[in-house]
Amino acid sequence: MDWTGIRRRARECHLEALALADGDRRASACLAAALKKADLQVQPFEPGKPFGAGVLGVLERDDGLVHVSVTLSPEDKFRVLAHELGHYHLHLDPRSEVTLANPGLSGDAIATGIAKVEGYSERERKEVQADIFSCEFLCPSDWMRDELLIRGKTPSQVARELGIPESLALHQAIRALLLPSLPEPKAVKGSATIALDGTQRKAATWAGGPLLVDAGPGTGKTRTLIHRISHLLESGIPPTAILALTFSNRAAQEMRERLAAAHPKEAVEIWVGTFHAFGLELVTKWPSGVGRTSNVRVLDESDSLAILEERLAELPLKHYQNLYEPAYDLVNVLRAISRCKDELITPSVYLAEAAAALKSARTDEERERAEKAEELGRAYEVYEAALKASDAVDFGDLIVHAISLIEHNAEVQKHLSGLKHVLVDEYQDVNFASAKLLKLLHAAGPNVWVVADERQSIYRFRGAEPTNVSRFVTDFKGERLSLDTNYRSSAPIVEAFQSFSASMGGGEMAGFWKPSRGAGAKVSLTVATTVRAEAEAIRDRIEFLRQQGVPYGEQVILARTHLTLARVTSVLEELGVPLLYLGDLFERDDIRPLLSLVSLGAESGGFGSTRVLTLPLYGGTREDCSKIIAWSKTQGLHPFVALERAAEIPELSDAGRLGAVQLGTELRGLENTSAWTLLTTWLFERSGYLREVALKSGTKAQQQLIAIYHLLKFCSDQASTGNNSRKALLERVRRVEALNQDTAFRAIAAEASDIDAVRVMTVHGSKGLEFKAVHLPALASQYTPGNRKGLLCPPPPSLSRLVMDAPAHDAEEECLFFVALSRARDYLCLTRADKYTESRTSKESKYIERLPRSLDHRQHKGSGPAFSLPIAKGPTVRRPLYSEKELELYILCPAQYRFEMIDGFRGARDSSAYFAFHKCVYATVGWMEKEKTAGRTLTDSDAKAHLAEEWTSRGPADHPFEPYYRGMAQEMVSRLLTAMVSEDGEYGHEEWTIPLGAWKVTITPDRVLRSPSGAVTVQRLRTGKQTKSELEKPIYALLRAGAVARYPGKPVQVEAFYLSNGKRVPIDSGNDEKSLKKYLDAINGIEGGDFTPAPDPRRCPNCPAYFACHS
Fold this sequence. Notes:
Number of strands: 29
Strand order of the largest sheet: 17-18-16-19-20-15-21
Distance between the termini: 41 Å
Shape: globular
């Protein structure tokens, strides 16, 4: 039963109880009536007697008893009773226990950590279901919505009136206002069960050994798989002897639900789950067999990155060193290690191949590649040791260790000896390690039956090996059987993807299916002039289909990437098309004000005030915000307190002063609370912000509410760990965004998806789904197929299977397009634009020519401006003098310039160890030059001693990377000292003022050396890695112009000096005119009031204004 069904069942029980209680809504009355109707008696018990420690309630179905701990408050007692009542109505277990009186927000788990491996376990899912039942029974969300919006009550008031926990009332308020109202049950048309066709029946009843079922799209593979299990059960196979493995948690849950409907008793005993969940079970049952304990933890990528960062000083980093933010390169190292585990390649094997590659290298490129491989291998060694020391495993380990246990552990072998049949869904997505796991299981005796379609292999980038499909007959000495009828799509759609498959894999993957549904609408291809016109064409088609009886919710827009989706959906939202799409949750314009509120007082600078106080609810201006934050700093006050005392601040606008006091009053006492407490208190108890949104009609408002719901789930998850630091939560958001780890936060939870809106998702996200109408945009060159990405961590040549080569990339792109085409049932609408950017024309995708000639071709010119970006206008200024640093800031991002230079907000990232390290190195360099100028002879120990003094006063002493940065700083100081020994001449340390057009620009060079001959060398010191982009920075042209003006007639050389390797790189003057123009353009932009953001996926999350910015 899905979340909606559970809430509906709870509401039915509530209404029955309410009637029996004569309309008394109090928890005591409703529960008494409901328990009496169910013939359940309540029996109190002392803690630990006769149940285990921590047990708060127990349902014993056969005895008709609900046991409740006497230690509970009345409110918690009612919640526990309602929870057990939920078990009674939802489940068939003879006994159920509850150990948590006030659980979290429930619903779908965010797929991070262990939840990514197995979602909810069967027991966990039942507990969450019972909790949702209890909330809806005690406080129905439709009634709660009226109490909040019509009667103006707060959740805490409702809790007191009903006699329920405040946390329960809050959770129901969240569901009432943020989730769609419960839809009416859909009428189910009575129909006879569809019998299996001949090939399906043959596959389901197969008795001839291992079998691969070649199941193309819409051929009923899941139905056949379920019938296969039914056949085994009916043949006398015990349910405990059946193991069903899937590729995703969603597929596993669907299989469990179908099995539970067909075989309620046996389904509980059949093991159903992902390969990784199966590995997790073995690892947690026999942890000592893999060097772990019973407390072993499963790490996701973020967790793995953290334990690797803790050991930075142990990592031999050179090529993968990133002093600014080590995680930027380490995350790629981790992903390369993960691929090694997919292929069962150990650190020792990887290092041996890297050493062989280094020995045989002949060119600089080959040597660098081999050095990178060796560096990664050493990091792999450190990482594996760190995992063991931390009593942890990562996702790859779950398969690697499962293989080891099956091969070497007698207890595990005995445990698995009872298996008779192993069934696998989506076998084409299995990687090398999982395939070996399956072979080991088969070798122990069980028969193997798998479902696959190599045309739908879209996870090669994660190690999926579709050749497992073609090798199955050989590997397992089995046979192959194809399902030959498509039951999903109309004939024109089947013809489209069948025609495309004819040339997949050079023709080796051609598929042939009989369409059971017959004729239908032609597949359409619309060519538009621009991306905006393409979105208009999609809008027109969506509305036309809706008039033809296809609801919004039965239509989907699919694209290869989120970037393409964002381009199209931004226009569709503007055009009023209802969409169900979160996109990037943390960068949504309607979520930024909430994150800005969380940032106030948690991060320095007060930037977030510009997003909160300027809300229409408060009426403040940016100028008001900057004055309030400045005043709070001079007074030493928390921003919340300063807001409440805004009447004391001069020169605020009248509206801003009133709004600030109102906001400060609403935030009183919340200075040190968690993000969860701050947001839920402000949204549901004190402010009118949420009420305004909740009272709006339309899908856009509903989407905003759903986005807020997902943000609160994220905050709830953090609060459940006991970490109440708002700063830590914001740092996690920044890290997620900078490392592109936001996939789990883009998914819309099932409990939030009951609205009639067009679904929007990537092709990867659509796998296993189907829709009446599918819209496929961006069928143009550069977009479909996508370009192959470069290698970030090249392996040794002998391990080339670790990377996706060009043929594999091309094959995966073909599979993605095939999957997209085959999601459609009735309508398939293809679109493309001639231009996706103002400067470049796109050609038709090469895939179009591989579709049938019978496409319905259309044209759409569109209306309105093709390419227009809003310009963020701000106050204009006129100045004769600028510093290079501020112009560099404007060039990087005009919006950040406005925050810092115009509005006066100041607040570098608190955690930036790199900048502290950088300052210490530069200060030591300046001291060394002064010492040499004074005629003193410097030693390495002298330089390091002064560095130590600088480090004590301004270094990143409390930062976890401190030892790493200190070691790098010492190496850099030593390198510069070596260079200074051979230098002869005078050092310059003055600030230069350089004429530039009608203005002047000031700059202080890092190093200036004037030799006895008069030649001048100007150096820019670099503490990071050597990069090509460094040579293109405009500062070198400005330094040259300054040196020429200051030392007329003297030879001038401008260089980049890399302290990380001691190299001096001369910068030629070829681009000086173009580079200096960048400064002039910056000045004109500043004086013209143009402060349009310049988004950058890596730089933006590290900007202090990130949450406040409108980028």
